[in-house]
Design brief:
- This is HTH araC/xylS-type domain-containing protein.
- Keywords: DNA-binding, Transcription, Transcription regulation.
- GO terms for molecular function: DNA-binding transcription factor activity; sequence-specific DNA binding.
- Residues 224-325 form the HTH araC/xylS-type domain.
- The protein is α+β, with helices and mostly antiparallel strands and 327 residues long.
- It contains ten helices and 14 strands.
- The strands form three sheets. A six-stranded antiparallel sheet has the order 5-6-13-8-11-14. A four-stranded antiparallel sheet has the order 1-4-3-2, with no helix packed on it.
- Strand 3 (30-34) and strand 4 (37-42) form a beta hairpin.
- The protein is globular, with a radius of gyration of 21 Å.
- The termini are far apart.
Length: 327
């Protein structure tokens, strides 16, 4: 067992499905694999204090969710971006203890119940102690920037999260962690979209605290019910605030408000979910011979040109090119 404080340095590494710790055969230096980064763990001379960690990490399409405690670390990010480095943002929340973050020419002390937004492609560091407990969400920067247009202004600005807000974020992260690897791709995209929308809401809500408040648990349950109904009927061309409201016995305006509270309109959410569903169908080898028009229709698009245009804008490739790249 390792003992004492450890120093963690990072370098680009291969993709890994989960976190793992192993010692190399040559120098017995433990390594922690975190997504595309490999952390070398250097231990000082042994002390009487044992070293232990309690971490959970789960990767989803476009996101990594990490909850950990008992991991004293000095994580130094790469000095320069590499071609293989993901252009992501890291939303790091201190659940217990404290941490110190440095990036973009700023250094901040991150206290308990506070969060900081950092990037993966810029040099920086994040230092924590043995008592620090973190909740970390790593997500695609471009996707979050759609919901937070002034995202750059929020980098390295500590945000206080109220108890109710933290519980909501923890619930969403636990939902992501509980997803089995065999879960349908469209469901994984759905959970990531929820996480991204919630983080955007937290940031935008901080900017307009007099106008925004975290959604109550009742509203969140209602929103989850509506989203479940959407997932079950993405192919319905008539899906709208009116049809969803009728099924939930609420008003269409209330449906639209629930989505606006998460920084995304209902129409934007429907488009995102339909595109993600179509994306999964196009990569399914069992559907390789089906017409793209049929897949678009099954995902709820009744206009093929509109589907092709929005798909290319969302994924930077055409549906036909995506299918060819998967073969």
């Amino acid at each position: 067992m390792l003992a004492g404080l450890i120093l963690v340095t990072s370098r680009p590494g291969p993709e890994a499905p989960d976190s793992s710790i192993a010692a190399t055969s040559e120098n017995l230096t433990p390594q922690l694999q975190f997504g595309r980064l490999t952390f070398n763990v250097e231990s000082p001379p042994p002390t009487d204090a044992p070293f232990s960690i309690d971490t959970v990490l789960h990767r989803l399409p476009g996101a990594i969710v990490f909850i950990g405690t008992g991991f004293p670390a000095n994580d130094r990010m790469p000095d320069a971006a590499t071609a293989s480095s993901p252009d992501d943002v890291v939303f790091a929340v201190v659940l217990k203890g404290g941490a110190r973050a440095s990036q973009h020419g700023r250094e901040e002390v991150i206290e308990q119940d506070h969060a900081v937004l950092m990037t993966t492609r810029d040099a920086g560091s994040h230092t924590s102690s043995r008592e620090t407990q973190h909740l970390i969400v790593q997500i695609d920067r471009a996707v979050l920037a759609i919901k937070v247009p002034n995202l750059g202004a929020w980098l390295m600005r500590p945000l206080f999260l109220e108890t109710q807000t933290l519980r909501l974020l923890m619930a969403h992260c636990q939902e992501a962690i509980d997803l089995d690897e065999s879960a349908p791709t469209h469901l994984q995209h759905h959970v990531v979209a929820d996480l991204c929308s919630l983080i955007a809401f937290l940031i935008n809500g901080w900017e307009n605290r007099s106008e925004a408040s975290p959604p109550s648990s009742t509203r969140m349950l209602r929103l989850h019910a509506i989203k479940a109904a959407i997932e079950a009927s993405l192919g319905n061309h008539d899906l709208s605030a009116e049809t969803l409201a009728a099924a939930q016995k609420i008003s269409p305006d209330y449906v639209r408000k629930l989505f606006r509270e998460h920084g995304l309109s209902l129409s934007e959410y429907l488009l995102e979910r339909r595109l993600a569903f179509a994306h999964g169908l196009l990569l399914n080898p069992l559907r390789a011979d089906e017409r793209i028009g049929k897949i678009a229709d099954e995902a709820g698009f009744n206009d093929l040109s509109y589907f092709n245009r929005t798909f290319r804008r969302r994924y930077a490739t055409s549906p036909s090119d995506l299918r060819r790249s998967a073969t």
